[in-house]
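Forwarding the complex inputs:
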Amino acid sequence: MRAVAWMLLPYVFTAVMGCEAASPDSDLLSWLRIDSAQLVLGPPPADQGGPVVQGVTLLQSRVWPGQQGKPISGTLATSATAVSLFLVGDRTHYILPAGTPDITAPESPTFVANLDFSPLLPLGPHQIQLQATDETGRYGAITAQSLMAESEPPPDGVLVFVLRWERAADLDLHVEEPSGQEIWARRKSGNTAPAPGRPPPGPNAGYLDFDSNAQCVIDGRQREQVIYRTVAPQGRYKVRVDSFSLCGQPTAYWQSEVWRHGRRIAVVDGQSVPSDTRGSHTAGAGTLALDIEIR
Amino acid sequence: MERFLRCRNRLADGVTLSFGLMLLHPTLGEADEGPPFSLRIGGFVQADAVAYRQDSEDQLDGSTGQPLNETRFVIRRARLRAEADARYVGGILELDGNTVIGTQARLLGAEAWAQWPATSGQAPYLKCSVGLFKIPFGREVLQYDPERLFLERSTVVRALFPGEYDLGVRVSGGWRFLRYALAVMNGEPSGEQAFAARDPNQSKDLVGRIGIDTEIASVAHLRAGLSGVYGTGFASGTTSSKDVLTWRDDNDDGQVQASEIQVIRGRAATPSQNFSRNAIGVDAELTFRIPHVGELQMSGELLWAQNLDRGVVPADPIASGRDLRELGYYLGVTQGITPYLRVGIRYDYYDPDADRQEQRASQRVPLSMAFSSLAVTVAVQHPRYGRVSVEYNNNRNALGRTAAGIPTTLGRDSVVLRTQVSF
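Prediction (whole assembly, two chains):
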């Protein structure tokens, strides 16, 4: 028993000495993330008689999981030194120091932040609560703003082939049509490839909407789609996943789906490893993910 | 051959091979009683078990991709050192391996020297060295790692002299209780963040220390010194950039409007610039031999510097538009309790920018960016072969924010168990 007490002593010492420190936790496990703000575990306290938030500017209430850089700003009461932001239900809230007053209200400190949302943010209604704090750390009354988390709309088209992956790698979707013609990053349309910056081709042709993470220039989208908007040729389609480059990642897990009239009719998972990046990356390249008959 | 191989000794703290070079250089052999040539090979291993680290997390750093978890086993230092001594000339080669950022091996020190006279066990009047060696500044930089009870050097020393080793030429020596060292060095220590062990400018840093090393009434030993460094730092320029078209969704509607498209014109490269930097420091170490108990050692160091931080918050007065004044110190006490137990406590403080300010609402207020730590260490040791120590480190900084938005400590306390073996 005494030995156990000695073993626990450093932890007790640490807990006592380090208890007043700000949390060093990262925000990756939180739904809401704010750069340059202090993360505080748990929800903020209720109104403690602190200063109030005078105004909030949130341009759009709609958010989507994984969204980055959603602007929010506002003004605070004169005695405020910081503002707390909390997404109700989240594991953390944030403290953002107040900034300089605006020229139109020289007595009111301001704040500006960009909100990032976790890809794991649950869909549905949310509420973000703001509370000003003063130099003694007292929280003021809650000012709430409503948010609606919506998923990105399902692929729009009579037939859509989707490839999505979770790492910053350069994977390419190849779709071989019943005619044997292949749609991929170098031939983005089943008819003729549109010139750069030109609108997508006519309704009768399938086209690749985006070459994501091309040449390892990471865009974060990590999703490519071949879309047939109104008409899709009937017959057998082959879907291949070409691992152009893992961009330094050890592996990349991908998922390929087929959507028919807004309904998912097939899905397959896979994994790309460094050996998959060898060989050519032209038409016909890649791992066969799906071989499906469309009627 | 037997006469040539005069003696061959194996010491507990290393392997020494001594050769009878007196036959080849009889005049040199008359100058000293030591062996005419010796080769000593030794080293040590420091293996850490980080039992607790307050900022550890099972995630990756978003900007570097490196693990945030520090609660782990790690080889902090595994050193192999060879010293060749031919009385008037000699050399040192030191290799380091560690797993701090994955497994790595590197050249740590490589030094060739000549001295006069060829004394053994005491400082020569003059010793000239060239190569990669410890920067002759202060106390902790020059301290041999296994001798230090505390696991790491103080923050101010790690900031101003990261890695402790640099390339250059040095003259050093002593007379009676006086000691001196003066070196011309690249000014980019081996732990520097941008140009470690290289030198981006032609200017060299001048580093020196003058001090005393003496017994006091046979019960105490005093080492103290005054150190200084004067040199030239390097602020990197920027490379040229291309025109970029960007879109920023200012009104958050997901639609592209003409006002949200911005053209960022490419810019020509900017030249790199040099800047002046300097530091001065005083250090002292007083050791008492307390009968029947053990050694009591008190040590401290105080440093003032300008634009010299190369490790913790790298100083760049060109980018900041003003000189950055640094101040740091530490005070430590260790007590030996029998030869087999040693305890110590050390407080260290480092302010990387004494003139820092920040905006709080409508006011511009001074901001202390100081780092401080309190280390408490207990070690069970064998005086010659190694030790097992545990250290609690209470760190304070200004990297967090209170509910009022005021800077406060971001938790970084740690508990580390270290096993050290010397050979």
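The helical segments of chain B are 26-29, 155-160, 317-320.
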